[in-house]
Specification:
The structure holds two protein chains of two kinds.
Chain A lengths: L3 E2 L4 E5 L4 E3 L2 E2 L7 E7 L6 E7 L7 E2 L2 E6 L4 E6 L8 E10 L5 E5 L3 E6 L1
Parallel strand pairs in A: 2-12
Antiparallel strand pairs in A: 1-4, 3-9, 5-6, 5-10, 7-8, 8-9, 10-11, 10-12
Chain B lengths: L3 E4 L2 E4 L5 E7 L6 E7 L5 E8 L5 E2 L8 E7 L2 E6 L8 E8 L10 E2 L3 E5 L1
Parallel strand pairs in B: 2-11
Antiparallel strand pairs in B: 1-3, 3-8, 4-5, 4-9, 5-6, 7-8, 9-10, 9-11
The chains are: A mainly beta, B mainly beta.
Chain lengths: 117, 118
């Protein structure tokens, strides 16, 4: 079953505008973590922001903020004041713990963001 | 901080040869490293979890004899693709989780290795 769902295969935004990338997740764990990563065309995965399931406030990192709605199981990424360099693939991921105690990341299918001048 | 390097960045080899990919955490120690595979326009698929000083844990469907993983130190993990075939051509990317991750367990990724098997 899909544990991380990103329903937007592609998004367009104009420079300096804000954009929201959607992410919903499915877990029965009480303790979990949610991450957003950016993957430019070079291929490197760049960590952007983290939200813990017990964090009461939405996470923010510079122009990135995470709109965490626990009851809806959504963790949308908001990028404010978009820049041309923000054009990339964006992946939402969830840290899940297996019965063995191992923790691993499960990734969504990604959203390609294109910022236009 | 939290820089991970990967070497080589790109490799082309003949079918039947073995290829070794190195993953290094440059400014932190990582008890645990992860190896992923990514096909074009797809998401990352976890192949295995590598723990320093112990055997790697492979995901279902990943052949442990084909993808050999060695995590010899707190800053180095290697992935060896043995007897590579064209279907092994892919983008391989590693990540490292700092030993002291402050409870977030954030993984930091290397730049990836593009493997092409002819």
């Amino acid at each position: 079953a899909q544990k991380i769902t990103q329903t937007q295969p592609g998004m367009f935004v104009q420079e300096k505008e804000a954009v929201t990338l959607d992410c919903t997740y499915d877990t029965s764990d009480q303790s979990y973590g949610l991450f957003w990563y950016k993957q430019p065309s070079s291929g490197e995965m760049i960590f952007l922001i983290y939200q813990g399931s017990y964090d009461e406030q939405n996470a923010t990192e510079g122009r990135y903020s995470l709109n965490f709605q626990k009851a809806r199981k959504s963790a949308n990424l908001v990028i404010s004041a978009s820049q041309l360099g923000d054009s990339a693939m964006y992946f939402c991921a969830m840290r899940e713990r297996e019965n063995t105690g191992f923790q691993k990341l499960v990734f969504g299918t990604g959203t390609r963001l294109l910022v236009s001048p | 901080g939290a820089v991970v390097s990967q070497h080589p960045s790109r490799v082309i080899c003949k079918s039947g040869t073995s290829v070794k990919i190195e993953c290094r955490s440059l400014d932190f120690q990582a008890t645990t490293m992860f190896w992923y595979r990514q096909f074009p326009k797809q998401s990352l698929m976890l192949m295995a979890t590598s723990n320093e000083g112990s055997k790697a844990t492979y995901e279902q469907g990943v052949e442990k004899d084909k993808f050999l993983i060695n995590h010899a130190s707190l800053t180095l993990s290697t992935l060896t693709v043995t007897s590579a075939h064209p279907e092994d051509s892919s983008f391989y990317i590693c990540s490292a989780r700092p030993t002291n991750s402050g409870g977030t367990d954030t993984q930091y990724f290397g730049p990836g290795t593009r493997l092409t098997v002819l």
